[in-house]
Each structure stands twice: as structure tokens, then as C-alpha cells.
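C-alpha cells help. Our protein:
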Amino acid sequence: MAMHPQTPAQAWETLMDGNARFVSGTSNHPNQDAARRTSLLSDQHPFVMIFGCSDSRLAAEIIFDLGLGDAFVVRTAGHVVDNTALGSLEYGVEYLDVPLIVVLGHDSCGAVTATKSAVDTGKMPAGFVRDLVERITPSVLASLRKDQGSSVNDMVEEHVKQTAARLVENSPIIASAVARQRTAVVGLTYRLNDGTADLVYSNGHIHG
């Protein structure tokens, strides 16, 4: 594993190498010892930001075989973007110079499933879950416009693509970093059954 990937392409390669180890059962569990902990006391230099779903089955550091100080992680149910999530990602770009932003969705997503149900039935969930569903609804509708028979997993992929695109559209800080090739934004869908993370969206130079 590279000590500290500097470019989007290096960060992407390191991330995918880690996922391959996780899938094959050969995880290295890097950067998880006391020496690493001590080395991070004064500052941090994560090489990837992961904006993912809160689902307990896709713990970011585990599925990409990462350790302390490697990943700056922001998670909400259904990786829904709000101002605090966007501000957290902008912080990583502006203050930590993180070269790769990953939007991470997964199959059988409960938040997307709830949104599909609300669209199908016209019944909105109670409480603040409604806010999640309202923010995911445009992705579900876009998926249905493409194919009336869209599955939840099709909708997840569409939602990952739309979320990733929205980060660049809504944030001048992220857009500027991508334009200057300092940062790339990618969208991945995670498969619960085998642990693989598949690329479904990219904006920036991730191949060296």
C-alpha cells in the first residue's frame, strides 16, 4: 500500500487494491497499530473521502482495507446530501487536500427502498425519515423514467450517479478542485453478497 497517495489516480488505485484484498479475504488491516495512532496526534492527511450510506454492512475502512488516518468519512442514510454533509466534504477538499471523493451506495438500500415505496403508494413516512425520502425521490423518479420496471438496485445506481454529480454542481470548492485535477469524484455501488465496489460514475482523472 502506498504510504500516502498524492493524486486522484494513486488514491483510486490504493482504494481498489484494498477492496480487492477485502473481497479475496486477504486484508492487510494497515495503519491500525499504536505507532500509526501516535503519528496522527498532531495532524491528518487522509487520501480519500467516502460519502456513504450509514448502513452497518458497508463499514468504509473495512471494505477498502484502510486504517487510521486514511479515510475522511461522511455517512447519512441513503447518502443524502445536506448542507452539513456538503460542508464536511468541502472541508476535506479545502483544508486536507484530499485527492479522491467517493460516493458509496449499496444494493438493497433501505432508504431507497422506503423512497420507492413512497413513490409507489403516495404515502410518506413519519418524522424526519420523510426528509430523507424527499431528497432521494428525484433519483427514484429518474430511474423510473428510464425504465418503468426499475429495481431498487437500479435506483441505487441512479441515486449514486445523481449524488456524485450534485456534489460537483452544488459546490464551487469541489468543482474547482476537480477542474484543477486536484480531486476526482467517483460513484461506487457496493455488492453485499461478494463485497465488491463497482464504478458507476467518475468525474476527474482516476487512471494514471
User: Anything to note?
Assistant: Strands lie at 48-53, 71-76, 100-106, 184-190, 197-203. Helices lie at 8-24, 34-39, 60-63, 83-96, 110-121, 129-146, 152-170, 172-179. DSSP finds eight helices and five strands in the chain.
